[in-house]
From TrEMBL:
Organism taxonomic ancestry: Eukaryota, Fungi, Dikarya, Ascomycota, Pezizomycotina
Gene3D superfamilies: Apoptosis, Tumor Necrosis Factor Receptor Associated Protein 2, Chain A, Cysteine proteinases, Phosphatidylinositol 3-kinase Catalytic Subunit, Chain A, domain 1
Species assigned in the record: Cercophora samala
Annotated protein name in UniProt: ubiquitinyl hydrolase 1
Gene Ontology BP term (one): protein deubiquitination
Any GO CC annotation of this UniProt entry: nucleus
InterPro entries per the UniProt record, alphabetical: MATH/TRAF_dom, Papain-like_cys_pep_sf, Peptidase_C19, Peptidase_C19_UCH, TRAF-like, USP, USP7_ICP0-binding_dom, USP_C
Domain MATH: 95-226
Annotated catalysed reactions: Thiol-dependent hydrolysis of ester, thioester, amide, peptide and isopeptide bonds formed by the C-terminal Gly of ubiquitin (a 76-residue protein attached to proteins as an intracellular targeting signal)
Family: Belongs to the peptidase C19 family.
Length: 1189
């Protein structure tokens, strides 16, 4: 069963009795109790985990009890003991206790049923296997519904918690019980315990420490405690087999592509923010109706969620984002995704009437201030916010977090605030306050924080409560607009289950103002209770029924893995506006029409698939297709139709159509009289060729019958060769050379055989079909030559220094010369064989000088891969491959070298490949380097090493397995080098980022430096590669390394060996700023990096910055603007903060009057620039989240 888990010791495993499974395979090896149960199964019972705790099972020993003994006859006391409170806390509908008095236990049959009793309005009974249900030395007891087999209501279900107590009627202090809970259905009619109790224990003279057995005189009572509970959501204890979300809830889910559950939960949240959905529908996409437009694909996704009956795929949307397979399998941050998606949709709405819709819906205003206590002076800044990040750590609930967010810091004593020249140093209050909240408030709960001791991010699982409703007015400034209440109602809870490295996202949403809550877990949608929405997502530890923490084996509390990560609240006064009705008619008209067309196309394909069994495909080879075919055999039946000039013709007929119908259809297509058309059945020969076998003379059978009679066919289609008669009789009937029909209807065979002729044209280096001939088997092979000369219009004879050479195409890899003096019969030629011929010069006569005139011209046309022999050309055909060559996007100019295709022999080696490509590009072959191609992304992979490997080995490496499955076998990237590959081997390639304008313009270069070189050589190579002014002309250049986390690592000295440069860091080069060059050795520098929201979300190029003693930060910012090259509004939006290692996740943001020299007092302190990553689309690394479309 899905989700099978081990049960605690002494806890039996419940199951049902009517499904056969090999029970021994499911024995619970962790159980130490002698009463450990086997799985139950149809004459055995399947296990369904019920989370039964060990306290649900009790073995009572009266002698060891110091308190009052509970008797099996005290039904109320027993009920309290055996029916423990359920974790789900469902409402109890009815409790029923029923006792079955069992007599003659050992003489009972294999299976016995007790009397029917009623509970919850339904019939029930106890099912007993007194001698075990396919288990030895056990009794098996179950609870089952009491409906007759054929009278169980459709879709019936009942959720029941129950206990089965076996007890001695003579001494009710002796009993044994097991408890479980189960969702009873028509399919799962019973549930219980296959290994209820060992038989030897039941009949022992002494039961535990008592002086009598449990089952005495073959008599015992079985009491069923049945508690019927309310299935409020319709999915309590559901196994979700054949579950239909649309049918049960009216909503559908989203398919998980790999690790896109975080995306699915956010998209569902936005979809059910109806005003947002309507705004997305209103984006004009009619003129940009393509799958690269993320607004259009989001419209399509929302429309499908609204109209589909099954879970919807997000493939179109993620492809429009520009995501590749690797991004699909990387979980990203919901908050970051939400912000970037909003930014992208805002861009799509610019210049339209919708331009302000999203800010009005999702954006509020917050004020950051420093206000003097004793003088009238305040410095403040008002900014927009799209979500609020609230601390979980140290707060017990949402309201505490808001208070924490707006708490005021007092600046006094040594930390007094400088209030300008007028007021000097003053006591002040520093903090933030909200000026307004949006209609839809997104709250990000900071469940992940940096742990300084472990030097990593960790998930905070502390209990943290959030209300269904709250009043946000307490967190607003005094001058905020209070004309409407600032009361908010919970609309969505996005949940993360798991830890930092592995987890799952799902969402609880309330689509309608007064409706149900629903759980959206990828493709599954279910109703949810408020307990599931609230209590179960507060985090913290699991509680027992008594409210105490559940403990693990180490006596530590067991923490819930799931907790709320993002909350969505809607302003109560705007609920109707935000949750406005949205119908499919609100979707763009062009979108609706597109889906109607797509639906019609799918229906047509579906109908075609359903009717496919009624039709048979026919593949036909005609004289015209054969003459256009330049490969082996008569055509390539395995290729797609019309994929090449010599491709077969394809027809589709009802299987019941006659062969005469087929002849008529083919004749009409090729514009011939049906009377002159004859079809030959083509079959697979043992040598894996496909050749005509015999003609179809009787046209009455159906195409299905003809196909079935054809022997050795390996194709799902009927394959035929179409013959056109050269002669007709006086009545217009065809006269066939072979298999002529006699007046009495008998078909006879003469000594003529059907041969196909191919010509290998040495001059044009091609093979082409010439046609077919009939020839007597008794004639010699040399008698074919006059026929060939006539067919080719070469006259009666060839020039004296030429002759015709004949070959038989036995199979693609076997081409043999024909001995001209043999008869066709001796040469073992038969119907359908292929004769290939070519003109060759007679070497004896040629040496005598008879061919001197043509010698020069022939030598001039001889190319790099010219085949003089048909057999060699066939070898080429057998190994040829069309390879596409692309200029490497980073190392070569695609404009200068457009992509091209070459037909190559896969047996050629690396050097020969270089010659062929070099000839095409008109470059030196020694200056070429090739790269394999990633099959999923089409990006370059690794460089191909020069060696003796063939092209086949390059495209399909030896041991082609999992590592190479992602490599294309029909394409290569190339790079035109400045030097030969041999010289390149002495160089080290270094990827370096050149900063030409502060840190705003990044240019990537691959620089080659001698392996024994130094950083100074690297700088010289960069100057040459980037074509920038030298150090003498424009100033010194420095080189430094940055970490993968976008932090400054170290500056490299000019004499540092390049061979020692770290492979796991990034190398950056820049002109040394004038103030840095003039700084003294004792000057203080600070490392700077960029981040967005939290220091752990770093981005961009870090740098070092000169700190000046006593300089106000207002002046420092002017130097920072010049240093970074970030100008205007972009620079004004940056918030600057000092990041300390001891408080990494809490930046100390700087005001204009702060002095960086004083605030950043430790050498470990860093300066952080807090702003969005505007250059994200240019850095699509593995960990970067980006949206392109």
């Amino acid at each position: 069963m899905p989700g099978l888990e081990p049960f605690p010791p002494a806890s039996p495993i419940p199951g049902f009795a009517n499904l056969t499974i090999q029970a021994d395979n499911h024995h619970n090896g962790d159980a130490v109790s002698p009463n450990a149960m086997l799985l139950d199964q149809p004459e055995e019972h399947i296990v369904e985990p019920n989370g039964t705790e060990s306290e649900d099972v009790a073995i009572i020993n009266p002698d060891s009890m110091e308190t009052d003994v509970v008797l099996a006859t005290d039904f109320e006391a027993m009920k309290d003991q055996v029916l423990a409170p359920l974790a789900e806390e469902p409402r109890i509908l009815e409790d029923v206790v029923f006792t079955w008095e069992v007599e003659g236990w050992r003489s009972m049959g294999k299976k016995e049923r007790g009397p029917i009793f009623e509970a919850g309005g339904y019939p029930w009974r106890i099912l007993l296997f007194p001698h075990g249900n396919n288990v030895m030395d056990q009794c098996s007891i179950y609870l089952e519904h009491g409906f007759d087999t054929n009278s169980v209501p459709d879709n019936w279900s009942c959720c029941v918690q129950f206990a089965l107590v076996l007890w001695n009627p003579n001494d009710p202090s002796l009993f044994f019980h097991h408890s479980a809970h189960h969702r009873f259905t028509k399919e799962e009619s019973d549930w219980g315990f296959t290994r209820f109790l060992e038989s030897r224990k039941m009949f022992n003279v002494v039961w535990e420490s008592a002086d009598r057995p449990l089952v005495e005189n073959d008599t015992a009572n079985i009491t069923a405690y049945v508690r019927v509970v309310e299935d409020e959501t319709g999915v309590l204890w559901h196994n979700f087999n054949n579950y239909d979300s649309k049918k049960e809830t009216g909503y559908v889910g989203l398919k998980n592509q790999g690790a896109t559950c975080y995306l699915n939960s956010l998209l569902q949240s936005l979809y059910f923010t109806n005003a947002f959905r309507k705004a997305i529908y209103s984006i004009p996409t009619e003129q940009e109706e393509n799958m690269n437009n993320s607004a259009y694909t989001l419209q399509r996704l929302f429309y499908q969620l609204q109209t589909s009956n099954v879970a919807v795929s997000t493939n179109e949307l993620t492809k429009s984002f520009g995501w590749e397979t690797r991004h699909i399998f990387e979980q990203q941050d919901v908050q970051e995704l939400s912000r970037k998606l909003m930014e992208r949709m805002e861009e799509k709405m610019k210049g339209t009437d919708l331009e302000k819709v999203l800010p009005m819906m999702f954006s509020g205003k917050i004020k950051t201030y420093i206000s003097c206590i004793n003088v009238p002076y305040e410095s403040s800044r008002i900014e927009d916010f799209w979500d609020v990040q609230l601390n979980v750590s140290g707060n017990v609930n949402l309201l505490d977090s808001f208070q924490d967010y707006i708490q005021v810091e007092k600046l006094d004593g040594e930390n007094q605030y400088f209030a300008g020249d007028t007021f000097k140093l003053q006591d002040a209050k520093k903090g933030v306050i909200f000026n307004s909240f949006p209609d839809v408030l997104h709250l990000q709960l900071k469940r992940f924080e940096y742990d300084i001791n472990l030097d990593t991010m960790m998930k905070i699982n502390d209990r943290y409560e959030f209300p269904e409703e709250f009043d946000a007015s307490a967190y607003l400034s005094k001058d905020a607009d209070r004309s409407e209440p600032w009361e908010y109602e919970l609309h969505g809870v996005l949940v993360h289950s798991g830890d930092l490295n592995a987890g799952h996202y799902y969402a609880f949403l309330k689509p309608e103002k007064d409706g149900w809550w629903y759980k959206y877990d990828d493709d599954k949608v279910t109703k949810a209770t408020k307990r599931e929405v609230l209590e179960e997502n507060f985090g913290g530890y699991y509680k027992t029924a008594g409210g105490r923490p559940q403990l693990n084996a180490k006596k530590q509390p067991i923490m819930r893995p799931n907790s709320a990560y993002m909350l969505v609240y809607i302003r109560k006064s705007r609920l109707d506006k935000v949750l406005c009705p949205v119908t499919p008619a609100d979707a763009p008209e062009h979108l609706q029409k597109r889906f109607e067309l797509e639906h019609a196309a799918r229906e047509a394909k579906r109908k075609e698939r359903e009717e496919q069994h009624l039709y048979l495909n026919v593949k036909a080879v005609t004289d015209e297709t054969f003459k256009a075919h330049g490969g082996v055999d008569l055509t390539a039946f395995d290729a797609l139709v019309d994929s090449e000039p010599g491709s077969y013709k394809q027809y589709k007929l009802l299987r019941t159509a006659s062969m005469a119908d087929l002849v008529n259809e083919i004749a009409a297509d090729i514009r011939e009289d049906p009377k002159r058309v004859r079809l030959w059945i083509m079959v697979n020969r043992q040598n894996k060729t496909v050749r005509p076998d015999q003609p179809v003379m009787d046209l009455r059978p159906t195409v299905e019958e003809t196909y079935s009679r054809a022997t050795a066919h390996r194709d799902q289609a009927l394959r035929v060769w179409v013959e056109i008669a050269d002669e007709v009789d006086a009545d217009g009937a065809a006269v066939w050379p072979t298999y002529p029909g006699l007046p009495n209807g008998v078909v006879v065979k003469n000594d003529l055989i059907l041969l196909f002729l191919k010509w290998f044209d040495v001059d044009s280096q091609c093979l082409r079909g010439v046609g077919h001939i009939y020839f007597s088997k008794e004639k010699k092979v040399e008698d074919l030559i006059p026929v060939i000369l006539k067919k080719m219009n070469w006259g009666d004879r060839l020039p004296s220094d030429e002759k015709i050479q004949l070959w038989e195409e036995i199979k693609p890899s076997m081409i043999e010369g024909l001995k001209v003096k043999l008869t066709l019969k001796a040469a073992e030629l038969q119907d359908g064989d292929i004769i290939c011929f070519q003109r060759v010069r007679d070497e004896k006569k040629y040496k005598l000088g008879l061919g001197v005139e043509r010698q020069t011209s022939e030598e001039t046309v001889r190319g790099l891969d010219r085949y003089e022999d048909a057999r060699d050309y066939y070898d080429f055909l057998n190994n040829k491959k069309t390879v596409t060559f692309h200029a490497h996007p980073q190392k070569c100019d695609p404009q200068q070298y457009p992509e091209f295709d070459l037909v190559l022999n896969t047996r050629m080696n690396y050097d020969k490949l270089c010659e062929k490509v070099g000839e095409k590009l008109n470059v030196e072959p020694t200056h070429l380097r090739f790269y394999t191609v990633n099959a999923s992304s089409n990006n370059p992979r690794t460089a191909v090493k020069r060696g003796h490997q063939t092209l086949a080995n390059i495209l399909v490496p030896a041991g082609y397995g999992q590592l190479n499955m992602n490599q294309r076998n029909d394409a290569l990237y190339f790079e035109v080098l400045d030097m030969s590959l041999a010289e390149l081997d002495t160089k080290k390639s270094i990827k370096i980022t050149w900063l030409s304008e502060g840190i705003t313009k990044e240019e990537q270069y691959d620089v080659l430096v001698a392996k024994n070189g130094q950083v100074e050589d690297l700088i010289e190579a960069l100057v040459k590669k980037a074509k920038i002014p030298s150090e003498e002309e424009a100033g010194k250049i420095r080189v430094y390394e940055t970490s993968n986390h976008h932090k400054f690592y170290r500056e490299l000295l000019r004499d540092y060996p390049v061979i020692s440069i770290n492979e796991y860091t990034s190398v950056v080069a820049e002109r040394i700023p004038a103030e840095d060059a003039e700084a003294k050795e004792s000057s203080q520098f600070i490392s700077c990096f960029h981040f967005h929201g939290e220091p752990s979300r770093a981005h961009g190029i870090p740098f070092r910055f000169l700190v000046k003693e006593g300089e106000k930060f207002s002046d420092t910012k002017k130097r920072l603007e010049q240093r970074t090259g970030i100008k205007g509004k972009s620079f004004e939006k940056i918030k600057f903060g000092v990041i300390r290692r001891t408080q990494f996740s809490r930046p100390q943001y700087l005001e204009d009057d702060d002095i960086l020299w004083d605030v950043a007092s430790s050498s470990d302190d860093q300066l952080g620039l807090d702003h969005p990553d505007r250059a994200r689309t240019t850095r699509n690394g593995a960990g970067d989240l980006f949206l392109k479309g």
